[in-house]
Design brief:
Layout lengths: L2 H46 L5 E4 L7 H10 L5 E10 L5 E13 L2 E10 L4 E8 L13 H4 L11 E3 L8 E3 L5 H23 L6
Parallel strand pairs: 6-7
Antiparallel strand pairs: 1-2, 2-3, 3-4, 4-5
Length: 207
């Protein structure tokens, strides 16, 4: 057998075996990974809505992904995606607000994914970062309490960031040297507020 052909067959066999092994590892690990990601998300929901006892999914036929996409696009928030909206319920089963899973694709290092809680009256409870890949020492400061706490406990129509020091409830101090990251997170929070208003107006939250 020609040496080149023989080597090619050996290489093909190695590649095939490696592919099969990788596929097997993926099948074994994808379940636990998905479970960990789901738990991390639920922990984040609890972090941004500590008064909630349980969370209830809003049915697709009541609030669809297309509905959410339309609302965000109409409000110039095309870079934002709200992946999930759940009602936050107290121990008595009463709706006290919503939690959301939001992604903004405008981060300096790519997508920034976070959870956000909003009370029935529109007050932002806070945000909890799930995934972020910004620059260490700069954009990664978006995952610090110092930055995230600026959104908590505020009821505004829209946040904006400033480089000269926040002077009003709707202003957020930008992270020094990381305005792109600041803008991405701020727009993501604004997407949550915008969608909440639409949900509230549509009477989806109920009593």
């Amino acid at each position: 057998m020609n040496k080149i052909v023989k080597n090619a067959l050996i290489l093909m066999a190695i590649t095939l075996v490696a592919g099969i092994l990788l596929g097997a590892v993926y099948e074994i690990t994808k379940g636990p990974i998905a479970k960990q990601e789901e738990q991390a998300k639920m922990d984040a929901y609890k972090e941004v809505f500590q008064d909630a006892d349980t969370f209830e999914e809003i049915p697709e036929n009541v609030l669809s992904g297309d509905d959410m996409r339309k609302v965000l696009d109409e409000n110039d928030l095309a870079a934002c995606t709200v992946k999930e909206v759940l009602k936050a319920l107290d121990a008595g089963g009463k709706t006290i607000g919503v939690v959301m899973n939001i992604t903004d694709s405008e981060g300096y290092g790519g997508d920034i994914n976070f959870s956000m809680g909003i009370q029935n009256d529109g007050t932002v409870n806070g945000i909890a970062i799930l995934t972020i890949s910004e620059t260490a020492g700069l954009g990664m400061k978006a995952d610090t309490d110092e930055f995230k706490s600026q959104f908590a406990g505020k009821k505004v129509d829209k946040f904006q960031y400033t480089k000269t020091g926040a002077e009003s409830e709707d202003q957020i101090d930008a992270i020094s040297g990381a305005t792109i990251t600041t803008n991405a997170v701020t727009n993501g929070v604004n997407a949550g507020i915008c969608l909440f208003k639409s949900i509230e107006e549509g009477g989806i939250l109920g009593e």
